[in-house]
Amino acid sequence: MKEIENLTRRDLLKGAATAAAAGAASAAIVPRHVLGGPGNTAPSDTVYVAGIGLGTMGRFDVRTSDLAGSKIAALCDVDNEAPKSVVEMFPKAERYDDFRRLLDEEKGIDAVIVATPDHAHALISLAAMEHGLHVYCEKPLAHTMYEVRRLQEAAVYHGVATQLGNQGHSYASNHEFCEAIWSGVIGTVREIHVVEAAFNFSRIEDLPRLEEKHPVPKSLNWDRWLGPAAERSYHPLYHPGLWRCFRAFGSGMIGDFVCHIVDPVFTALQLGAPSSVHAEVADGYDPQKHGDTFPRSSKVRFEFPEAKLANGGVRPALTMYWYDGDVFAPPHPEELGPDEVSIPLLGGRGAVGGLVVGDRGKITYASHGAAQWRILPEERMDEYMADRSRVEDERGVGMPNNFEHHEDFLQACRGYKVAGSHFGHGGPLTEIAMLGNVALMFPEDTLAWDAENMTIPNRPDANAHLHYRYRDGWTL
């Protein structure tokens, strides 16, 4: 008992999370009564969280984490104007403008939420894990393939709880979708189509504007905002604004949405890593001229090899097609009329979701947790649902009471489980997006992918896009 008394609360939480991640019983390291649990609340059940990056998703994540049962202890953003609304919600939280100082000074926190622009995800997440903290990181997990691999390795090495911010993974509709695939109701799957047609992250028309000179806002520390990215002048297109649309800071549509839209099929079919990728781009997109942003529309083909499944079965090889923008579009199911919507629209703007093609039927679904999934033809759906019921509470995206994913993460921090989209799941999922973005720099070429050795053997010059050289003073 003296050994337990001498442990800090963070030690207890970290030790329990490590045991859970290893598949061991938490009680083997920390007794259940110390950790608390249903009807047995203990101080160690309180998870103290710091939010780093307080823009749109940062505000959502901090508020949602609070609703899920955490205590928001600290807030950090390099722009003092950004966190005002969050500070009003959590006036007692300590304020910081440098994540490094927060990590060094806040000894009482247990976990961090990382919701900065993509290019800073890996640095902050890795530093937090090195401080023994659990990490919830917004999608995509990182900005380069190399960074994603480093974070997966670090999560295992440091034994902390982790979660990728693809909240739909925790929705009940996502589990329902997977069960339908596993039931065999649509037979063997050999083809998948996923689409994001609601947003346009291309800024080709704005590239000439980047030569403009703009003063840095007084509230913003531009050097810290840049972080590891190459030196460049401030522009309001980057912040506060459209950083997702620029390759130096964001990951485009494929980076922003693969972790949502592909996750249901990635989970259900245990996709793993593709063996090759091939990209088509629209409207004369030239990577040499326009590589600082992304195509207005693209179609990317991923080939997944045959794979052994966790249950001992074998999944046949299959092809997945990614579509974004308004030029390329997935096939329309023959089971539907020409005017019927196959993949649900997001906010009425455009299709966001997927079409899974089996040899006995099809399943369509919407993004963010396979919402609104249905089986085609309709008689097969009726047959499948004969002795089943659907989840009625489809709350959609962005609702403030949508806290299942954060609650799942907090339970992992407490040592009761492994989070559903831990970095061992979210990392390989993000790698699909990273590989797709490399392919966009080599349109019309088929890039072979050696996942084990993290290399593109048939185009050695493409390997330069798997990572980049950080600005002086920043290392991973």
Provide a compact summary of the structure.
The chain has 476 residues and is of the alpha/beta class.
Q: How much of the residues is beta strand, in percent?
A: 15-25%
Shape: globular
- The SS-based structural class is alpha/beta
The description of the largest β-sheet is: 8 strands, mixed
Number of helices: 17
Can you tag this structure with a few keywords?
476 residues, alpha/beta, eight-stranded mixed beta sheet, six-stranded parallel beta sheet, disordered N terminus
Report on this structure.
- This protein is an alpha/beta fold.
- Helix content is 31%, strand content 16%.
- The chain is built from 17 helices and 16 strands.
- The chain has helices at residues 2-5, 9-21, 32-35, 56-67, 84-89, 99-105, 121-130, 145-158, 172-183, 222-226, 238-242, 252-261, 263-268, 287-290, 378-384, 404-413, 423-439; strands at 48-52, 71-76, 94-96, 111-114, 134-137, 162-164, 189-196, 276-281, 298-304, 307-308, 314-315, 318-324, 352-358, 362-366, 374-376, 446-448.
- An 8-stranded mixed sheet has the order 15-14-13-7-12-9-8-16.
- Strand 5 (134-137), helix 8 and strand 6 (162-164) form a beta-alpha-beta unit.
- The chain is globular, with a radius of gyration of 22 Å.
- It starts with a helix and ends in a 28-residue tail after the last strand.
- Residues 1-7, 22-41 and 394-401 have low confidence and may be disordered.
